[in-house]
Amino acid sequence: MIPISRDHHFGLLLVWKIRKGIDQKVDKKRIVEYIRYFFEVHLSLHFSLEEEYLFSYLAKNDRMRKEAEAQHKELREKFDQLNDGVCDEHDLEEFAKELESHIRFEERKLFPYMQVELTAQDLEELGNSVEKTHQKVRENWHDPFWEN
Asked: Chain-centre distance of CA 37, in angstroms?
């Protein structure tokens, strides 16, 4: 699960960048453009990887799996709302807050839970699957609004 945790670092950087942009009164359109880029290029792939490989090791009715899937759904809906173009600082902060909360949930609750619930063989298989399909986050963004 190490590659997934590394992705979470970049997710937390996204949260920081959103908040930095809000604090610096950056035009919301610039922040939303970056969120769109990051979500479409990185975050949606990350969610798919977790849903296809990670969550599949837990029963469909497992409460932790259901919570993680519900959070993914909520984040996708928040992203769609931001992407519609009508948003304010509150909407940006809500997205950042929910993303941060989701990452903390996975790191502090879901992953430790899985390490206890899964067998060593399951964890090894999971690790191998993630290694084969995971793509490292490589930033390629033209407008570092958070540096102002």
From this structure: 13
Indicate the fold that domain 2-135 takes in CATH: Four Helix Bundle (Hemerythrin (Met), subunit A) (1.20.120)
Q: Could you identify the residue written with the tokens 């977790």?
A: 50
- Whole-angstrom distance between the N-terminal and C-terminal Cα of the chain? 34
Q: Are 64 and 58 in contact (CB under 8 A)?
A: yes
CA–CA distance, 99 with 94 (Å, rounded to integer): 8
Q: What is the pLDDT along the chain (148 residues), one digit of tens a residue?
A: 788 888 999 999 999 999 999 999 999 999 999 999 999 999 999 999 999 999 999 999 999 999 999 999 999 999 999 988 778 999 999 999 999 999 999 999 999 999 999 999 999 999 888 888 888 888 889 999 999 7
pTM: predicted TM-score of the whole model, two decimal places: 0.92
